[in-house]
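tmp note - Pyrimidine 5'-nucleotidase YjjG
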Amino acid sequence: MSASGITALLLDLDDTLFDDSHATRQAFSVFIGPHASRFSEAEAELFPRWRACVDRHWRRFEQGELTMAQQRHERLRDFLGLPHISEDEAARLFQPYMDAYRRHRRLTPGAAAFLDATRHLVRIVVSNGGAEQQRAKLAHLGIAHHFRHVVTVEDAGAAKPDSRIFLHALALENLAPEHCLMVGDDPERDIEPARRLGMAACQVSHGRHAAVFQQLSLQLQNA
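out:
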């Protein structure tokens, strides 16, 4: 990737700057305790099933079928096999998961140093997460001050990989795509759509965050 001419970074949040996988795994360990007797499988075997429920109902949120709260509750109903419980009961059962998830929020390796090294560039978060939740993460992690804007599904009226969310972010600072670099962990949602719009793009992945961020910092230091 050439960093020549790059003036702005568009950055995904979950599993790019924020270690969502860690928070999710720790939260599931807390959540499953009271419900373990429902299942014959061990926790390690149940976690992929939980992830499948997360992905299934998250896509419904991205498509506008569910609110953020509803996708959480549908995920719980799906996983526990309790389709008819009320919203209030679903919220009560889900709360220990949310509390644990918040306790285990942390940056991905190398993210803090990368943000410090790219202060000379315009930075915009582009996330499919809910606006309130994502802004709360940035504040908790102490990195909110790095970003000119935080663009979410609610802000843009569209979710990645829809080009509208990227174009919304670019329009906020009148940015040309060819002068922007998208950094994210998801090829389908982050990398491919950014490249189709003419942006440079760089993928991070589990176990490679620190190395990728260090390399990007060096490439972008004279951008």
